[in-house]
């Protein structure tokens, strides 16, 4: 007769299966964690691509790393005399668009490179400058204007949705200006903004100790209210830039300076009103501008039409249209970041 099996001393009890509810809860927790982390990893990847893009674009000097603008055939004969279209789209900023990671800004160095290429191409007889910009910095706007003034070929300006402030300033280099009836243009003036966070810092109990070499060395500081003397000093600077803008408009449009000052209170005008005020020459569209440019360039046959384009940044080349959809918002923020970092003079419209 066999003896019944005796229990083994200190033996572990049989392992019970994990309840289904516990397993489901664990997988749910893992799913939530992954759902939270994946967007972070994706944003991190995009950030790294942006850094790589900036490194590729800006790894050397501006002169050596900048790519040449691209001239793309649009229509007309494949050879022969041509009209070149040069676009100015977005806020006017310094530098190359590729270094900023987006082509959705009017980067001065890119635009000047397109102007230079058109000037040196003997087959190009005239230029259509497409302007769709709220303006931007005074210095980059003036650099584009001076480059256009150095052009020894006719320039016809074609205004798009918006050609305001710095966008109107660079248009003054044109020999003839077209606008859509509903283009917003003008906004002749200068603006400069200074944030004041003194009230917020007082609430937070934060005090700043400033040691300076002169009484206006911390002019424009966001930590305190600007003094009346400082406001008067900066108004003098603003007035110099404003006087220059008014003079350029008066000379280009053959309008008495006093009349320009009456118009130059910062407001925008529709294309129809701008025509009545002699701020533009005619209402028209792309075909009108091309035909006018061909006429001024003494092109008797159908002109070859080419469009200059700045090179895409490496990030845009990788991501394609996704960057194009995001970039306009980024480009619009550039002047804002600039104002936060340092005082800036701008020919820019603030809608």
Explain this structure to me?
- The chain is an alpha/beta fold and about 350 residues long.
- It has a single domain (about 55-350), classed as 2-enoyl-CoA Hydratase, Chain A, domain 1 (Alpha-Beta Complex).
- Helix content is about 45%, strand content about 20%.
- The chain contains 13 helices and 13 strands.
- Strands 1, 2, 5, 7, 8, 9, 10, 11 and 12 form a 9-stranded mixed beta sheet that branches.
- Strand 3, helix 3 and strand 4 (about 105) form a beta-alpha-beta unit.
- Helix 4 (about 110-120) runs parallel beside helix 5 and helix 8 packs across helix 9.
- The longest helix has about 40 residues, at about 20-60.
- It is globular and about 80 Å long.
- The N and C termini lie far apart (about 100 Å).
CATH homology group: 2-enoyl-CoA Hydratase, Chain A, domain 1
Terminal residue distance: 102 Å
Number of strands: 13
Cα shape: globular
- CATH architecture descriptor name: Alpha-Beta Complex
Strand content: 15-25%
With helices defined by DSSP (H or I, 4 residues minimum), what is the helix count?
A: 13
How helix-rich are the residues, as a percent range?
A: 40-55%
Which stretches are low in confidence, meaning pLDDT under 50 for 5 or more residues running? 52-65, 321-334, 336-341
* SSE succession: HHEEEHEHEEHEHEEHHHEHEHEHHE
> What's the alpha carbon Rg, rounded to whole Å?
30 Å
Give the total of domains. Answer: 1
* Structural class by sheet pairing and helices: alpha/beta
Q: If you average the pLDDT, what whole number results?
A: 81
**Can you tell me the CATH class?**
Alpha Beta
The CATH topology turns out to be 2-enoyl-CoA Hydratase, Chain A, domain 1
Give the biggest beta sheet: 9 strands, mixed
């Amino acid at each position: 007769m066999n003896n019944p099996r005796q229990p083994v001393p200190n033996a572990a009890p049989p392992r019970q299966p994990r309840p289904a509810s516990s397993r489901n809860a664990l997988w749910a927790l893992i799913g939530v964690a992954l759902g939270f982390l994946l967007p972070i990893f994706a944003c991190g990847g995009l950030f790294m691509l942006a850094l790589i893009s900036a490194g590729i674009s800006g790894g050397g000097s501006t002169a050596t790393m900048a790519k040449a603008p691209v001239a793309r055939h649009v229509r007309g004969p494949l050879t022969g005399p041509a009209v070149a279209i040069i676009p100015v789209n977005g806020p006017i900023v310094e530098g190359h668009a590729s270094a900023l990671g987006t082509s959705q800004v009017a980067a001065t160095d890119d635009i000047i490179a397109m102007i230079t290429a058109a000037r040196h191409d003997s087959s190009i007889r005239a230029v259509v400058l497409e302007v769709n910009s709220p303006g931007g910095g005074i210095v980059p706007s003036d650099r584009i204007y001076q480059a256009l003034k150095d052009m020894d070929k006719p320039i016809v300006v074609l205004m798009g949705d918006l050609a305001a402030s710095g966008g109107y300033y660079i248009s003054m280099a044109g020999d003839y200006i077209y606008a859509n009836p509903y283009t917003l243009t003008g906004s002749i003036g200068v603006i400069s903004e200074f944030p004041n966070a003194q009230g917020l810092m007082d609430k937070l109990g934060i005090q700043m100790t400033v040691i300076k070499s002169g009484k206006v060395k911390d002019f424009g500081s966001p930590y305190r209210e600007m003094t009346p003397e400082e406001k008067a000093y900066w108004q003098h600077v603003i007035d110099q830039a404003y006087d220059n803008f008014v003079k350029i408009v008066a000379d280009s449009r053959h309008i008495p300076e006093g009349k320009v000052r009456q118009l130059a209170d910062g407001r925008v005008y529709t294309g129809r009103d701008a025509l009545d005020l002699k701020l533009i020459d005619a209402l028209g569209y792309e075909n009108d501008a091309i035909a006018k440019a061909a006429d001024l360039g003494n092109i008797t046959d159908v002109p070859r039409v080419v469009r200059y384009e700045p090179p895409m940044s490496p990030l845009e080349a990788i991501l394609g249209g996704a960057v194009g959809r995001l970039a306009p918002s980024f480009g619009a923020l550039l002047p804002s970041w600039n104002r936060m970092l340092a005082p800036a003079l701008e020919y820019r419209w603030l809608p």
